[in-house]
């Protein structure tokens, strides 16, 4: 049986996005709070999230003086790929074409975005 990958909740994702965006992708609780939109969460709230993220294996704490500095153990790209792959497998029977078609039918794209997509597809085709 395939092992279920750990996923982030919406709130955990918000914390991880802030951590991923920090210089050198590491920071203290206060660094994370400082980058939160208003209303900013309590220090203890972020501390709880960091404990959960540590337990889930997404971050590691490193003692620096009297505080912990946190670093991600998973890159944003790796997590995003894993998450989208799970969506593809769960909702689209593993079909990349079905996944892309679904969004192509639901989204409104600008001419510039369509041109970018066509250029990307051309580059991918030329590498085959």
TrEMBL record:
Keywords: DNA-binding, Transcription, Transcription regulation. Pfam families: Penicillinase_R. This is Transcriptional regulator. Belongs to the BlaI transcriptional regulatory family. InterPro entries: BlaI_family, WH-like_DNA-bd_sf, WH_DNA-bd_sf. The lineage of its organism: Bacteria, Pseudomonadati, Bacteroidota, Bacteroidia, Bacteroidales. One of its GO terms (biological process) is negative regulation of DNA-templated transcription. GO terms for molecular function: DNA binding. It comes from Xylanibacter ruminicola (strain ATCC 19189 / DSM 19721 / CIP 105475 / JCM 8958 / 23) (Prevotella ruminicola). SUPFAM superfamilies: Winged helix' DNA-binding domain.
């Amino acid at each position: 049986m395939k092992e279920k990958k750990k996923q982030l909740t919406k709130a955990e994702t918000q914390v991880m996005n802030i951590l991923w965006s920090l210089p050198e992708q590491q920071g203290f609780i206060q660094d994370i709070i400082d980058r939160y939109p208003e209303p900013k969460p309590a220090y203890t709230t972020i501390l709880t999230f960091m404990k959960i993220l540590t337990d889930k294996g997404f971050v590691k704490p490193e003692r620096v003086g009297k505080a912990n500095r946190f670093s991600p153990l998973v890159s944003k790209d790796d997590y995003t790929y894993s998450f989208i792959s799970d969506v593809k497998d769960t909702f689209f029977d593993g079909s990349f074409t079905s996944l892309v078609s679904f969004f192509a039918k639901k989204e409104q794209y600008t001419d510039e975005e369509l041109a970018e997509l066509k250029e990307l597809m051309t580059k991918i085709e030329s590498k085959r």
